[in-house]
Design goal:
The chain is an alpha+beta fold. The chain contains 13 helices and 34 strands.
Length: 652
């Protein structure tokens, strides 16, 4: 085996960059109604990259075809629980595997692709002469490897000899490469190197791209691993099923469940959800995990997501203070932290996410275990109130990439929502005095937010993001997201103006070229929640079509040009929350208690959110438009209840 000679393994190919802006669909939905398909066209180059993950492995597969249809593919595989030196945020063992070439004896033809298909597993259909090839790529669930299963079918009348050639080399890492001088082995397992196929005969070649500790062995059952991947996908198909009149939106929601749920790693510190993207594994953030995706797991109904959320909030316990900010990130399987941007409003993020999760999860004993952490987080947050009555912080979740000033709109609005949720929690725990204090503090903070941040910015009577920022920012949607609807019309106009609006989303700042999907997703949620359903639906349709069927499928992304449109997982969680907290207007108010304020677009007569979980109960929610408002139907354990009106208070 060859020794590694470079300190880090390079990332996936630059040719996989996506073009913007979105113009029209490039992919189509398969006949099964679930898969996303690209059929290769003559004289047209095609490239893409997609991330898939499971408990021990993540893979970013860069794939495509040149103008002649010749397959090209790179496999960037990450092993989050194999730590390198230095053992920091990006210290996961990773490797670019060159993969396996298929050739037929005495045939110089290349592998020509016909279709790329994705349905949670990436399938590539191709052929060499009369040899049909179907590659299926997905992460193993129980082993540290990424799997490629190749189905070969000889359609010729004669026998053929097929050779499988590994283009890479087996590697043993030097001691200086691994954390604590641990050594790893990186290798490609191939079940067969040479195969004799008779006429019309078919066989499967199993390949695994492995990363193991030096003395660790592989015990891999390929049939079992494919079944486990399919079981995971099928399980999510029965969790929080979104049903709208728009099939693209429904399918985008399905894929959002996969991406937001698959990026959970079984580390030595327990289950840890992580963003992914080639850099961020076996690590937690107060925004991505605590704020964005964990509140979703409170009601999604995916048990692994629930367990991960509890472990995530628990791992922060020793970093929760009442006299200083919570640290930004816990990295390296819990062995280290990152706090490089100082106070980003992290304590507000933590309290916001944890309080919402506990309300929807509905376990009183669990709430009693965590309420002290919420109180400490809010005590510190309130202590950062400046002379104008809003919450100061050193930066925000973009970590000084853009101007955030000394007090930004995100931190104050998250603090406002956290105070309201925490008041509901204390009422459930019979702490009426604390609940009243949080309610009064929230009311005062709302008044101060409106007084401090309200400003005419670039001709719109909306909000400034911070005093130091003269330009419009897409994060001005945050007041609508948390139910502060004053100035919402002008804010809506500003967000959808040419200064911020692009074809399928929002720019981060007026006059900039950068976009972050997370601000578009928050904006969509806020627009629906505030009742601007026509404008919100138009944006939602374009965003969903662009991400589902456009250049880079089928998930929400982090940013562009930064990150090469990495498909970070928590953004998919934010997409799903458009439907629950935006269109349905769900607001948890206690254990098994929530309000629903539907805001269906005019073109939708009905919407359903089935198999959604609250306080341990799985329910179906159906909203139907009526002249006087809505008919709300809730089915709980076979019992169906109907409610009529516009605003609903539900107690399960």
């Amino acid at each position: 085996m060859l020794q590694i000679k470079r300190p880090r393994i390079p990332r996936f190919a630059e040719w996989a960059k996506m073009s913007i802006p979105f113009t029209s669909p490039k992919h189509y939905i398969g006949n099964d109604g679930k898969s996303i398909v690209y059929s290769v066209k003559e004289n047209t180059e095609y490239v893409n990259h997609i991330e898939m993950a499971s408990f021990y492995t993540a893979g970013i597969i860069s794939y495509g075809a040149d103008k002649n249809g010749k397959l090209k593919m790179l496999r960037h595989i990450v092993y989050p629980t194999l730590r390198c030196y230095p053992n920091n945020t990006s210290g996961s063992l990773d490797h670019n595997f060159k993969g396996v070439n298929i050739s037929i004896a005495n045939n110089k033809g290349y592998e020509k692709v016909s279709d790329f298909v994705f349905d949670g597993i990436l399938t590539i259909c191709s052929k060499i002469d009369k040899l049909k090839i179907k590659r299926k790529l997905f992460p193993a669930t129980s082993e540290k490897c990424f799997i490629e299963r190749i189905i070969l079918h000889n359609t010729a009348n004669d026998n053929v000899t097929v050779k499988m050639t590994d283009n890479g080399k087996n590697i043993i890492t030097p001691a200086r490469y691994g954390n604590n001088r641990e050594r790893y082995q990186l290798f490609t397992y191939i079940s067969n190197n040479t195969i004799e196929l008779g006429a019309n005969e078919e066989c499967i070649i199993n390949i695994a791209y492995c990363g193991l500790r030096l003395n660790e062995s592989l015990d891999l059952n390929f049939d079992k691993e494919e079944s486990l991947r399919l079981d995971f996908i099928n399980k999510l198909d029965n969790c929080m099923v979104i049903k709208t009149p728009d099939e693209n939106i429904n399918l985008m929601a399905r894929y959002a469940k996969i991406r937001s749920s698959e990026s959970i790693y079984n580390t030595k510190a327990g289950l840890m959800h992580s963003p992914g993207g080639g850099n961020y594994y076996a690590a937690l953030w107060t925004n991505d995990q605590c704020e964005y995706v964990n509140p979703l797991f409170g009601y999604l109904g995916y048990d692994i997501g629930e367990k991960q959320s509890i472990n995530c909030y628990e791992m922060y316990r020793k970093y929760v203070y009442n006299d200083r900010a919570i640290i930004t990130s816990i990295v390296a399987e819990g062995d280290d932290i990152w706090h490089g941007a100082k106070d980003r409003g992290d304590s507000a993020m933590y309290a916001y996410g944890l309080s919402r999760f506990l309300l929807t999860y509905g376990d009183k004993k669990l709430a009693e275990q965590f309420i002290e952490l919420i109180d400490k987080s809010l005590e510190y947050t309130i202590s950062q109130t400046n002379e104008d009555g809003v919450i100061a912080s050193d930066s925000d979740e973009l970590e000084n990439r853009l101007e955030s000033g000394k007090a930004n709109l995100c931190t104050s609005t998250l603090a406002y929502d956290a105070l309201i949720s925490s008041a509901y929690l204390h009422e459930e725990l019979n702490n009426t005095e604390k609940a009243e204090y949080y309610k009064n503090t929230a009311a005062q903070l709302k008044e101060n937010i409106l007084k401090y941040f309200s400003k005419n910015v670039e001709g719109y009577a909306t909000f400034m993001y911070c005093k130091e920022e003269p330009k419009l920012r897409s994060w001005i949607s945050m007041p609508m997201v948390v139910g502060i609807f004053e100035r919402s019309k002008a804010t809506k106009d500003a967000l959808l103006s040419p200064k911020l609006r692009m074809a399928e989303g929002l720019l981060s700042a007026s006059g900039d070229k950068t976009f972050w999907d997370r601000s578009t997703l928050y904006t969509l949620r806020g627009l629906f929640y505030a009742g601007y359903t026509t404008e919100a639906l138009e944006l939602l349709e374009k965003f969903s079509t662009a991400r589902l069927l456009g250049e880079h499928i089928p998930y929400a992304v982090e940013a562009f040009p930064e990150g090469n449109q990495a498909q970070l997982s928590a953004e998919s969680g934010l997409y799903l929350r458009i439907f629950t907290e935006g269109i349905l207007g769900i607001r948890p108010t206690g254990f098994g208690k929530f309000t629903i304020t539907p805001n269906l677009p005019k073109t939708w007569d009905t919407m359903e959110c089935n198999s959604i979980k609250f306080a341990g109960k799985t329910i179906d929610i159906k909203v139907k438009r009526q002249k006087s408002g809505y008919l709300l139907t809730i089915t709980n354990n076979g019992v169906t209840l109907d409610f009529e009106g516009k605003n609903f208070e539900i107690q399960l």
